Amino acid sequence: MSENAAGTVIVISSHVVRGSVGNRAAVFALETLGHQVWALPTIVLPWHPGHGRSTRLTFTESDFEAAIDDLIRAPWIGEVKAVLSGYFGNAAQARSVARLVTALRERKPDLLYVCDPVMGDLGGLYVPQTTAEAIRDYLIPLASLATPNRYELAWLVGAPLEDNTAIMDAALSLGPSRMLVTSAVPMMAGGTGNLYLSGRHALLAEHRLIDKPPNGLGDLLAALFLSRLLSGMEDEKALQLATASVYEVLARAVKRGSDELTLASDSSSLASPMAMVQMRRLMHPAQRRKG
Ligand SMILES: Nc1ncnc2c1ncn2[C@@H]1O[C@H](COP(=O)(O)OP(=O)(O)O)[C@@H](O)[C@H]1O
Ligand SMILES: Cc1ncc(COP(=O)(O)O)c(C=O)c1O
């Protein structure tokens, strides 16, 4: 296997000093699974704002834009096989990343672009509406795969999503050819899981719900699923492994009483998870419509 067989990935999200959210989760997961990673922070902050006061260190829009231009012109840019975006500091950054993805696609039409539209949760949007709109209007149309949680998907399509049939219809209408919807509606009591929809698949990967989870699970899942796809794994196996890793990492962090994921101690759960995940095939919306 050559040094870069797993593929170079550009990750673009927040950087925290302490903790495992945003780029800290994605970089660790991708490097552990053998990828070369280029990491561009969108903001730098001491820790996830959920822990209390956390001062945002920011870049000007023009500096961020200039750094994107440097990346586009980099002599090594031909190495890049995938881009993963997550948390953005403002709407202009989302537009700059759309420019990056478009420029890379001109040279490499099969570039994988994974858009994790980090914008909100059960309580509603936690980024400014202009940022959420820029993700929806500039990035989602470019995504090979989007990984919203159920509430983000509901905002993106402008409709409440109370069951998995509604989630699948919404995922199909949004546009990307592959959708991984997190915090889907569980079929198992006391469960949660991920719903994956592509032209060929409608799958639900379920496991037990754990109280008081640390942050960063969505960031970790998107990176792990991307890694498995890049390595050429079949979608169903990629979903099962990525879901099992996230669940196992979460369970181990909570067992330790940690308020953050403890990825350095749990790297074996990223590479070879042992946790069981309940995989179910759902009726694909296209099949339902055929009657
Ligand atoms: N409380 C929890 N217990 C067990 N697994 C969880 C829990 N919260 C999240 N997960 C797992 O992590 C995945 C991603 O988490 P989610 O909170 O939906 O992402 P995001 O951080 O993008 O909002 C979920 O689909 C589920 O598999
Ligand atoms: C700065 C910042 N705020 C909020 C979030 C959202 O965190 P969560 O999805 O765990 O709620 C993230 C996730 O990457 C983040 O980096």
What does this structure look like?
A hairpin with a 4-residue loop joins strand 9 and strand 10. Helices cover 40% and strands 20% of the residues. The radius of gyration is 18 Å and the shape is globular. Strands 2-1-3-4-7-8-9-10-11 form a 9-stranded mixed sheet, sandwiched between helices. The chain has a two-stranded antiparallel ribbon with strand order 5-6. It is an alpha/beta fold. The chain has a single domain (8-290), classed as UDP-N-acetylmuramoyl-L-alanine:D-glutamate ligase, CATH 3.40.1190. Helix 5 (150-157) packs across helix 6 (164-174). Bound molecules: adenosine-5'-diphosphate and pyridoxal-5'-phosphate. Adenosine-5'-diphosphate (ADP) binds next to strand 9, helix 7 and helix 8. It is an enzyme of class 2 (transferase). This is pyridoxal kinase.
CATH architecture classification name = 3-Layer(aba) Sandwich
Number of domains: 1
* Assigned CATH superfamily: Ribokinase
CATH class wording: Alpha Beta
Q: What is the gyration radius calculated from CA atoms?
A: 18 Å
Oligomer: single chain
What would you call the structural class? alpha/beta
The strand line-up of the biggest sheet is 2-1-3-4-7-8-9-10-11
Beta strand count: 11
Low-pLDDT parts are none
| Count of alpha/pi helices | 10
Overall geometric form: globular
Largest sheet: 9 strands, mixed
Measured as a percent range, the helix fraction is: 25-40%
Report the bound ligands by name, code or SMILES.
Answer: adenosine-5'-diphosphate, pyridoxal-5'-phosphate
How much strand? Answer: 15-25%
Listing every helix as H and every strand as E from the N terminus to the C terminus, the arrangement reads EHEHEHEEEHEHHEEEHHHEH
Average pLDDT works out at 96
Organism: Rhizobium altiplani
Enzyme class: transferase
Protein name: pyridoxal kinase
Pfam family, one: Phos_pyr_kin
